[in-house]
Amino acid sequence: MRLLSILGALAATLLAVPAAAQQIASASTVASPDGHLVLTIGTNSGEGHPTWSLSRKGQLLISPSRLGFLLTDGLAMDRGFTVVGSETGKGDNTWELPWGERRYVRDHYNELLIRYRQADDRGGRLMNVRVRVFNDGIGFRYEVPEQPALKQMNIADELTQFNIAPKGTAWWIPGGDWNRYEQIYQKTPIDAVSIAHTPITMRLEDGTHLAFHEAALVDYAGYWLRRASGQNFRTHLSPSSRGPRVTRALPMNTPWRTIRVTDDARGLVESDLELNLNEPNKLGDVSWVQPGRYVGIWWGMISGRWTWATGPNHGATTERTKATIDFAKKHNFRGVLVEGWNEGWNADWFSRGFEFSFTKAAPDFDRKEVADYARKKGVRIVGHHETGGNIDVYERQLDDAFRTDAALGIDWVKTGYVADAGGIIAPGDKPGEVRMEWHDGQRQVQHHLKVVETAAKYKVSVNPHEPVKDTGLRRTYPNWVAREGARGMEYNAWGAFANPPEHEATLVYTRMLSGPMDFTPGVLSLKGAEGVPLASTLAKQLGLYLAIYSPIQMAADFPEELEKHPRELAFISQVPTDWSDSRLLAGSVGEYAIFARKDRRSEDWYVGGVGGAEEHTVTFTFDFLDPGKTYIATIFKDGPGATYKTDARHNIAYETRKVKKGDTMTLWLAPGGGAAMRLQPGK
């Protein structure tokens, strides 16, 4: 009876795909190179709605879902369509990242382009959909050609649906919330999601992992994934002050709508789907984009010891900056971030930014003296452009700001847009007029690209905080080195707002799927403002350098606190920020993540990562090492009894051992714990 039951279930699964496909008339299919993923696209058999579905290994993942647009100035482009043509294609090539988690990326897909035409009584408009199917996911976008019936798209909203068939669990943060992306991830059933930012990650009941996101977000509004009913979702574009959420002249392409689809968490993390759907590097020689580590005059303001504004506790003074440069030189940090150096902080700057100057310094900060001192020490100043969300003021100074920075030897700049969601102050159509926009609306998407392109003109790399989400554009603009776009380390300085112990082990499988994050790890004191403890062990602070990737990595704590932990500081001083290979050795969403990463400039490997709220014992194999070599492993791990809940968070153990390919290791991760190790080939 059990065998008959299994066979019956299997037959039902196999029959589900053809039954669903019958709901799509004029259907065409495109499969992944390995044949496991099959996307079906055409129109439905009723009112001519453009419709698509997706199956994997015979299981229906996305049941028939509609495509189209709502317009502000015409009939919707959502029905009355017929398929008037199609084209197929494929690609298989390998390209090189100038910096990143790995050096080489394989771009392997099958492609289908469907050409739609709407009925004459609905405007006779043309719309194409291009689909690419990879072994680990899909991407599709709308391509609206130039045509007599339509000159400009004024999009009220996009009607892309994702009707998720199987049950499962989702990890997500709300879209459209006042606090942008800086929220705690929720874990709920899929049908309990309301409206979510992407990436949103799901684990189906059979263990299949999905992650919904987008790629190549250019001159368009970012989308939030909105649940309509049950497990039926659709895109919801970020608002605009101008009515249409997107206005584009034709021809135009939308961003790619992407879904990573993998057997497990490892496949999800190791996928390069969104990178592959972006255009190649447009900047030419980018050897001037340099990864590295930095310290800064920042934690003092975040934790309340110093101020950004001038006065008796001003953080960014000439003398304090020179002392921090000395620390950076001594401990092999490339850069020193200086926040609060410029005019404008004394005003009511939050969500306003009217007084900011990006070239004029505060009275007690001598930019030239500091820059000259840093140059003599072989250290770079990391610039800071906080806008208070006022891009009207910033864009008027943009070229001068980056030209001045470059002349001072500043080649990394952290930008900031501190304002509540919907609080971006943008220039209007008339002199003196301003408009209020969203952080991920079309106007702010345009702004970020303008900043990156202006910075590239002066060979400066950009790291925006309070940004629009990453969608893989670092491939096209390699000076877009990192972003914030989630709750970072600063929340751990604010007591009641501190991140929970599972936060970073959730970020790995959610926010980090979009791209590098400037999380700012390395608070070795394990305390924030007024001594409030972090939900972290000491070993976890080292594991963060391997779990949360960025080509620029900070050691966030005060220099004197870092120097109280010489062995840990030495590890941070040497851990690379640029890798030739990266692999997830063991992991589960929200619970733990252990990576192996190979230094791009040596034969060294680094292994480590983070745990969540509960303890875990993790076993992995060193099958990534070169055969025939013995490696010396220098290990930092949670000590006996370590836990984030008590002062035992400081318990750390050290070990040195020899390992070779095929050996296994078992690590105990404490509650709120982690581990890190360096593997060097023995002589």
Description:
The chain is of the alpha+beta class and 683 residues long. The chain has three domains: 2-276, Beta-galactosidase, Chain A, domain 5; 278-485, Alpha-Beta Barrel (TIM Barrel), CATH 3.20.20.70; 494-551 and 564-683, TIM Barrel (Alpha-Beta Barrel), CATH 3.20.20.70. It is built from twelve helices and 37 strands. The strands form seven sheets. Strands 6, 7, 8, 9, 12, 13, 15, 16, 20 and 21 form a ten-stranded antiparallel sheet that branches. Strands 1-2-3-4-11-18-17-14 form an eight-stranded antiparallel sheet. The protein is globular, with a radius of gyration of 26 Å. The relative contact order is 0.09. Mean pLDDT is 95; it is low at 1-22.
Set out the fold topology.
Elements lengths: L1 H20 L2 E8 L5 E8 L5 E7 L2 E8 L2 E3 L9 E16 L7 E15 L7 E9 L2 E8 L7 E7 L2 E4 L3 E5 L13 E4 L5 E2 L3 E5 L4 E7 L7 E7 L2 E6 L8 E4 L2 E2 L2 E7 L2 H6 L2 H4 L15 E6 L1 H4 L15 H13 L4 E4 L28 H11 L2 E7 L4 H17 L4 E5 L7 E4 L6 E4 L4 H16 L3 E4 L38 H5 L30 H10 L4 E3 L4 H4 L3 H9 L4 E10 L3 E8 L5 E7 L4 E6 L8 E9 L13 E9 L3 E6 L4 E8 L2
Parallel strand pairs: 22-23, 22-29, 23-24, 24-25, 25-28
Antiparallel strand pairs: 1-2, 2-3, 3-4, 4-11, 5-10, 6-7, 7-8, 8-9, 9-20, 9-21, 10-19, 11-18, 12-13, 12-15, 14-17, 15-16, 16-21, 17-18, 26-27, 30-31, 31-32, 32-37, 33-36, 34-35, 34-37
Helix pairs in contact: 5-6, 7-8
